[in-house]
Design a protein that fits this description.
Elements (H helix, E strand, L loop, with lengths): L4 E7 L5 E7 L8 E6 L7 H10 L8 E5 L4 H6 L37 H13 L3 E6 L2 E7 L3 H11 L2 E2 L11 H8 L4 E7 L5 H11 L1 H9 L1
Parallel strand pairs: 3-4, 3-5, 5-8, 6-7
Antiparallel strand pairs: 1-2, 2-4, 6-8
Length: 220
């Protein structure tokens, strides 16, 4: 059971669904927070955490938007890229987008060439989030773009993961560059630890990071 409203859904190249879910207070909201999981199909824990949070009712003062799984085709195949072999986190129409080699970091033949990317651009334009949190793996750090340093420090306190302003390698056409640096939206890339299928490990991860959802709902 998921306690959230379905806002929008689209189908991918392989016919899988991408969902935009909403949870908001009854009498207006203060801010909008977007939380997204599974940019990369081999990083599945974001979907688990979002669905875990939405499986229980909880209060919120903010409008919360969730995309549990942005890349269901890649998730089904356990690949970083989508069904077209594109790394979605290199496919955004940022000024630093560049055409790259066709490997697992391939950013597409042109910016925003992918349905998944265009869907994210649509969500950003329509809902104008005040804060964005994306859930990645496996570095266990809090990375940020745009005016998000204080938020990153707060999330670091919640999770115990250190703040790392740079992930350590170039990411042309990245979501963080597009939203954080160019649109000036506070954008957090929460890098979770290496994925484990062990249920005890998943429960431990939930206990470690569940506070970020309360922060997004009630504190931010």
């Amino acid at each position: 059971m998921i306690f959230a409203d379905l806002e929008v859904k689209i189908n991918t190249k392989n016919g899988n669904e991408i969902l935009l879910l909403k949870r908001s207070p009854k009498d207006g909201y203060e801010k909008t927070v977007l939380v997204t999981g599974v940019f990369h199909g081999d990083e599945p824990d974001g979907e688990y955490l979002i669905n875990r949070y939405l499986s229980e009712r909880s209060d919120t003062k903010n409008r919360l938007l969730f995309i549990p799984c942005l890349n269901p085709d890649g998730l089904a195949e356990k690949t970083r890229t989508n069904a077209s072999g594109v790394d979605l986190n290199r496919n955004f129409p940022a000024k630093n987008w560049e055409k790259s080699a066709k490997d697992e970091y391939f950013g597409g033949d042109e910016p925003a060439s992918e349905d998944e990317t265009r869907f994210m651009v649509y969500v950003i334009e329509k809902y104008k989030p005040d804060l964005i949190i994306t859930l990645h793996e496996p570095y266990a750090v809090v990375n940020y773009d745009g005016p998000a340093k204080e938020i990153a420090q707060k999330i670091s306190q919640i999770t115990g993961f250190e703040v790392q302003e740079s992930i350590g390698y170039p990411t042309p056409g990245s979501f963080g560059t597009y939203c954080g640096l160019e649109k000036n939206i506070p954008t957090i890339t929460l890098e979770l630890p290496q994925h484990s299928a062990n249920q005890q490990d998943k429960e431990a991860l939930w206990q470690k990071v569940k506070g970020i959802f309360d922060f997004a709902a009630l504190e931010y």
